[in-house]
Amino acid sequence: MLENISETIRTQRKLKGWSQQELADKCHLDRTTIGALERNNYNDLGIRKVERVLMHFGLTLECQSMGLPTLDDLKKNR
Question: What's the rounded Cα separation, in Å, for the pair 28 and 6?
Answer without folding.
Answer: 18
